[in-house]
Design brief:
- This protein is mainly β and about 140 residues long.
- The chain has one domain: OB fold (Dihydrolipoamide Acetyltransferase, E2P) (Beta Barrel).
- It is about 5% helix and about 45% strand.
- The chain starts with a strand and ends in a 27-residue tail after the last strand.
- The relative contact order is 0.18.
Length: about 140
Amino acid sequence: MNQVQLVGRLSRDPQVSYSAATQNAIANFSVAVDRAPDRDGNRQADFINCVSFGKTAEFLEKYFSKGKPIALTGRIQTRNYEKNGQKVYVTEVVAERVEFVPGDKSGSGSGSGQSTFGGGQKTDEPPFGFEAKDGELIPDDDIPF
């Protein structure tokens, strides 16, 4: 099974573009995920390239920015293309579900529960009683921040 779960911080703002044929939103972003400390107690992070599509991409653009905590579920995808005669290989996470991180002190999180967008089942009840489902927009008045 190809499933990835990441919790970290956005290392850059999501860059959203729209496909020419379908006008489907595509968000490219990077998540910094902490590694376990080494023997000397030094901490390092991995910077993982991610992509998201459709309403999830638009949700990312609207509510997430560089430095904000994020939790996501998705899958690893590999692809390649040719640039200037050289073959370029890309490995990235396709984020199918994104969540605000509970307890985020920066003001963007939702407190003790989870607020999610994208497919999949939710495991905790959000404190304000809402969850966005794929293809559904959340009215601004229903967002708790």
